[in-house]
Queue: 2 jobs
Job 1
Amino acid sequence: MYQSFKTPSNPATGAPRLKALRAALAEAGLDGFLIPRADAHRGENVAPCDERLAWLTGFTGSDGHCAVLPDIAGVFVDGRYTLQVRNQIDLSVFTPQAIPEDSLSDWLKAHLGKGVVGYDPMLHSHGDITKLEKALAPEITLKQSPNMVDAIWQDRPAPPMGKIRPHPLEFAGKSSAEKRAELAGKLREAGLSATVLTLPDSIAWLLNIRGSDIAQTPVPLAFAILHADARVTLITNPAKSSPELAEHLGPDVTLKEDFAAALTALSGKVGVDRATAPIWVSQQLANPEWFPDPCILPKACKNEAELNGTRKAHLRDASAMCEFLAWIDQGLEGQTEIDVVTKLESIRAQSNALTDISFDTICGSGPNGAIVHYRVDEASNRAIDTNTLLLVDSGGQYPDGTTDITRTVIIGTPDAEMIRCFTLVLKGMLAVAMLRFPAGTTGQQIDPFARAPLWAAGLDYKHGTGHGVGAYLSVHEGPARISPTSDVALQTGMILSDEPGYYREGAWGIRIENLLIVRPPEDFGGEDKMHSFETLTWVPIDTRLIDPARLTTAERDWLNAYHAEVLEKVGPLVSEGVRAWLQGACSQI
């Protein structure tokens, strides 16, 4: 199994650990301490040794932070985790706070007033710290400190030591030497002698390497320095390397272990991304200059080899999903959420190409489906109810691509409200899929198209509509998103999810998700060329939950054409029995 169902945390551990932390803070002369979810690489997924937020509070979501003061401790989470956080933390000692409604600076001023708050400089960016310092001054001072959670975490796991492996050119589409040369030219144009890379997926993309330090995300935990002459210093434990890797990297990539020494040895202006790099990095440099990570945008704009590989990966994944959905339709009597996740994983694993799942499967029956990022475990596992909705959000990691798909299906017979809400969510998903838009359009501008049908009915959802997806990298990739806060323009070759939803607390949840490629601008007969989307995901949408009368002619035509293409593309890839099921699931409406 790729996914564990052990209960990830125990709220009962929160009080004694918090007491120990407060004692350590008092001894260090600190009035508070900040504990982010992030590690030194500021990534969404972290190794077990970096799960400080979960270890202290019990909250296991992929985003959030905790602020501990002498008499109160706040756990800050966004709308995705409003329900989850209350289930996982000890509410007698930790207080949930909502992001963005509850500002950390306002909370600190209200509950501390005056004092010194510590933070680990390897876990916070320069941008975050300077913004917070400005908001708190002069009454509250931020002070760099050794990590106080580590000081009391007696059985903290060791850092991961996964081997680094080459990523084949047939999947990467461009050699590392070409990438390094192109980006080195940008450094010279900016007058930089080098730039520091701290994001593992940027380093993996630049050097055409992959790793296994992070579960479900095939990256090595490492730092790197890209020099203006296209050389790279890769900072990692030498034990992660191999003769095969050394040959792949070539003579212009040097492995070193001492990050601080490598930074202090640099001369000239050195670029640092103030949004992603730990503040510690810029403090080691004699002449730092703010410079965005140059890998982020070209990594997001996939080349044709990466897109072709991703298309193939999605077809393999679609065949597995169809086998799975056909199994569900045979009946789930006596089955639990864990049984469903296990079955899906076993079907996906039959593909020899699968290397991992791309994230823990979200499988919520009935009220659990209303928990946006629900992860079933032994404590929360419930039997699959009849006459309710089952939401399954899952994905796979393949050497040629990363997948992410959500399907919500009816178990039994839907009621009118389920059908109404499902159809509204579908209309929003189709609005994005069918959209044409000019160059420069941002995710912020596209997001309302997905919400408009729900808004018209007085409904909404508390998460973004879409996120970027990597090419055998992170399932959540920047810089572009489809969300109310994203001001990044969508560009040709980007892969994004399209996943509006609606969640009725205590009842059920609905989400429908396909992945899309941003197509190059085309002439559609008007004055300006327009971008559009190419669909990557080919899996039926449950037509039993659709009210055709609520769809426009264009929406019905799109959905019918989509299902016809699903049948054409995936039908030959599935077993004979599933092919018969697929024909019914793809029936025209």
Job 2
Amino acid sequence: MVYWLLRIKTARQRRCWWRMIVVMTVCASLAFFRVQRWDRLTLTAEVDCQQSLVVMPDQIRVNGNLVTLTGKCSDGQREIVNWRCRTKKEQQWWLHIRQPLQLTAWGQLQPVTLATNFAQFDLRTYYRERGICNQLRARQLAVRPRAVLGPLDLCHCLRAWLHGYFRILPKPLSQYCDRLLIGFSTPNEDWQQAVRQLGIIHLFCISGMHIVLAIELLRRLLTRLYVTKESIDWLLVLFLPAYLIIGGGAVSLVRAVIMAECHLLGRHFKLTGIDIWSLSLILGLVHDPLLLMSMGGQLSYLLSLMLYYVKEGGWQQSVQLSLLSLPAILHGAFEFHILSLFASYIAIPVFAVLIFPGTIIAALTYRWWPCFGDSFNWALLQFHHCLIALAHLPGEICFGRPSGPLTILLLVLTLLVVDSPASRKRWLALLSAYLLIFVSIHVPLNGEITFVDIGQGDSIIIRTPLNRKVIMIDTGGRLSFRQGRWARVKAGRSRAETCSINYLKSEGINHLDALCLSHADADHIGDMSSVMRDLKVSKVVVPIGMESLPQFTGRLVGTTEVVPCKAGDNVDRILRAVHPAKPGQGKNEDSLTLWGIFGGNNFLFTGDLDRAGEKAVIQRYPQLSVDVLKLGHHGSKTATDPEAIRHWQPRLAIISAGRFNRYGHPNRETMQILHDDRIPSMSTQQYGMISYQYRGEHGQWKTCLRGDELKWMLPPYSNS
């Protein structure tokens, strides 16, 4: 945007300049009032309520026994309703809904949870952009069918019917139909991870290419039926808004539909390509003033604009467009694959000529001619094998996350290069900027101790200055409870992937010098496999005796060295083990307890160590100094012995526990012990990710949350 403002200014087009100011002022005002309205609508606490909503059939998601509904209230406000099915029969009923519902729900209305870790996906922002500010945890529902009232309802019903029909198709054909034709997301699988690594994920979402192909296919079909060109144009003008709903209404789809409509109507008003793009941007910003705040909106409009300016065709155009998208991708995804610069050049014609038409034909004919669909599905599987093989080739670069201003700088420099690709000075400036940003991210002068908000579990990251050593203590993980197979909720990505791994990659780190596991409980090692798949782990350190336990060995990935550790051993010369002294079974009392000095403070990481274990540490190391204590067992009363607290006298206690956890952590008794000894505490429940950043002997604490955002979710005695 800055680049284009400068271009307009230097062109000395006063009328164009003032029009730009007016458009930007109007859009900025709309965005400001939209955000103000969201802030007023977003609750600050949980309230009991009764809500009446209209729910369209395509706004129902069923995952195990969890049903998520998106409905519209009588005042026009959209809300999410979460409901747990009691029986498999009820689950199947929700899966086969094909008409609008009138829903009355009783339960607790609460705000959508915001991101509680740095570099974590912000669910609150995502839902706000879709006009949703609050969610309802329902304890009772009353449901009755609602009549179809108009064309919009019909589009939603058709989308739901198509989604149900696609479920009978074999995988991955069914996933392609959902993604490409109606914009339904699908479960995370290996081939989708490969697609993200290669930077061609945009081809699997609704984008401008799909609209162009759909229009061309429909135009050819109608031409063969002897429909006039003018009639085809007007049919498309009517069809595209309906497809906007059927396709799911993604940002790139909104942009593509508006541009297609403007192009069809522009023939009568003699609009140029740039006029059409500009009009689509203005209309898109009126529809959603925060359109350009998301990576999808930025890439969709930027790349569609640059198609008019990038003069070279073929692979040169593909490389330049990939370079233009790179700053936004790095800011949102933190890494890229060298092959992504060329993958789009190969993949776009494959999609245009084979995959997109083949998906449509297979979907239309499968019920009567399944042999084509099965053959096409086999071809898709081979395509996936190729994608996975390419993604595993050397060339993936964990760059890290450039700050907002630096991302803008990279984009402006890239635009200057595209504007004059023969200029060596501009190429040198761009490459120098990337190199300097890369070095600043990968060779930081400060170190940090970070307590990740992993939910009900532990995960701690230790990083020394210049990234000389990077160590993770525990990975977190979900505790599993016995349920029928039908009731199990399928998690797309683990908490480690969305929290700790995401954070490490945003800091340019894709390796661990050591992964230390305190003991064998799932909330400490449950996500170990995810960590070992996504990061290069040099060794795994476990308390002595745990190295042969099946619940540990079953989660190992690859041939990483496993190092048993006991009291007195060192971990990479920066941590010392102070417990256990003898082999155990990986239980709480056997927790690997580590001590280290960072930034002038003595840290003690206790895992789930119980009170007897704390006393054993004191007996073995009576002179041990502790400034920062990670409370054992998430603040449970089974840990944090009063005598140990009085002996160590820490200046700060850190508690890692999940919100609304069923165990009541941290326990009231534990908090009273800290209060009696005047020891302040910080909890990941309240502050989200907690980080101590230091340089030399001095440091400062930094938290993701202020501490009052989620106060309504906490027990009253846990607030510091």
